[in-house]
Amino acid sequence: MKKLLLVAGACLLLSGPALAQRNKTGPQGAAAGGHAEGASATLERCDEPLGTVGVVEEQSGDWYRYLTSDLRLPSTIPLIRMMIQQSNCFVVVERGRAMQNMMQERALADSGELREGSNFGKGQMVAADYSMNPSINFSQSDAGGIGGMLGAFGGRKLGAIGAVVGGLKFKKAETILTMIDNRSGVQIAAAQGQARKTDFGGGIAGWGGSGYGALGGYTNTPEGKVLAAAFADAYNNLVRALRNYEAQEVQGGLGKGGKLKVGN
């Protein structure tokens, strides 16, 4: 019985990474201006940008706390920004932490500390036409029972395998990207994406005592790869929808009372 479980556990461990390699559809490579290097072949691309966009996260949401505390993954913003630039569908503008550095340089210029000709005068920053907001819905798995069973049967040997299998954090991730017009506040588009888990997760931290944090990132952890693929799916769906975009019209004009009237 122990031998059978050991073989089964080993097969599970080996099959996960293989599946992850075969299903490598998430963001990868690099981007510089309108040029993409090593981007996923499945990423939608545009012949020219549709406008400028800033990416913002709702960092007070439950999904963000689970992402950063339980999964120990970083912000989704760099991941999404790279996808956007590789697609050439929007020009990305900074609206995150680097804004502090941008304003600091301007403050230094105003104080006279920067060299002459540094050219940090007013009127150079590019407006963000749109804001893109990501969110995640995690579908929990019941993988802990598998790990517990292996540990109970096999002691230390099977317990090690059980730690890996039991480390499955979720079986499916659903992501949503919404895009808002910054001038009017009108939602321009929204798209959902999803991906299923194809590898084993946080239990790997038990090996070698290095800790899960040492594996962090969206390209080298199972959970990260699933989330990256789900966001790529959502972004592709968003771009496809925008290709057929039609502005919504309200009789009498947007925000001027609407057609649903209340009684006297």
TrEMBL record:
Signal sequence residues: 1-20
GO CC entries: outer membrane-bounded periplasmic space
Superkingdom of the organism of origin: Bacteria
Q: Which UniProt keywords apply?
A: Signal
Matching InterPro entries = Curli_assmbl/transp-comp_CsgG (IPR005534)
Name of protein: Peptidoglycan-binding protein
Protein species of origin: Thermomonas aquatica
